[in-house]
Here is the input.
Amino acid sequence: MEKKRIQIFDTTLRDGEQVPGCKLNTKEKVKIAKKLESLGVDVIEAGFPTSSPGDYQSVQEICKSITKAVICALSRAVEKDIEIAGVALKYANRPRIHTGIGTSNYHIRYKFNSTPEKILERAIYAVKYAKKFVEDVEFYAEDAGRTENEFLAKVCENVIKYGATVINIPDTTGYCLPEEYGNKIRFLKENVKGIDNIILSTHCHNDLGLATANSLAGVMSGAEQVECTINGIGERAGNTSLEEIVMIIKQNSHLNLFTNINTKLISSTSYLVSECTGMKVQANKAIVGINAFSHSSGIHQDGVIKKRETYESINPEDVGIDQSSIILTARSGRAALAYRYKKLGCFLNEHSLDLVYSIFLKYADEKKEITDMELKTILEKANLNKNINKVLHINTNNSSSNRRINIV
Ligand code: KIV
Ligand code: ZN
Here is the structure.
């Protein structure tokens, strides 16, 4: 069976940048956009041009610097927004306007004080108007997660009729369970005329920690595009994280799906986004957290040293990390200690290892983590360094403990 390609729509620079305290300037945005293009994303959502002159300028500059990826600009279903998005995209090789409106009862009644019929009219008008500026128009049905499937299908069918090339089904509030979201996508696939001629997209928020699971359910039910951000940043609890959905697809070949992402650039992209936005990645974050490929307990370390796969299902090299890390803590065993000394060029016999290990444990009980420099001090304490045939040279500027993960 032929594998189906899932398009990766990155919204780090739009939904991701909506996080409080995360402000990127144009230069940083262009730098991230270029990195996203080398990463292999299909679409870069560059911003919401009507929101500020700065965002407008960033979208324009990104259009000038990117050649392969589609550049997308967000707008509401408002003429002025659409017009500004269209002009901001003027220099793009492959421009896309992303326009839409809330379709759930919450949005129709409370946000717009409107009716389903009027919302449908506005949706159609927005798509027709956006088509005056670009051929590629993506429509979002905001809060689709809480929109009744029949009404959602009606909106989708109509916007397709008027030229939408992509339809986005956002679970704006992170409300759906994976089964529910998957069923919604399947319902649209089975009940909307013309749906096979457009790209159906997932856009899931992480309020219940289900964003990635919901996106996966979406693609397993027929969606062709996933909207996501690097490190999962975004409004409130964030969006589906790009690295998670991409690696899930890569690791599970039985899904018969693939993406165009060069996964070896995942770590360095995560690092760049974290540096530019000032948003630290939580240590235990899947794929890109500093602990994602680090082992600190004796049992796990012993297993990983014998064969990496005993405690790792993902090869760190696949995401651009040269090797797993063996972290020395009070929970570490002799195997890990010997391994780290060996990495420093120091081979300990059984007797020396026993001696060093007892001193190590005293240090480790007082510290969170033992560094290479401390390993050297431990050898000195044990009065062993002059007996060791290999000279132990530790470069303090490049101690493996300064930065656990070496990015290739
Ligand atoms: O979460 C959402 O509904 C959105 C839309 C504006 C696409 O980000
Ligand atoms: Zn969103």
Q: What stands out?
A: The radius of gyration is 25 Å. Residues 350-366 form the longest helix (17 residues).
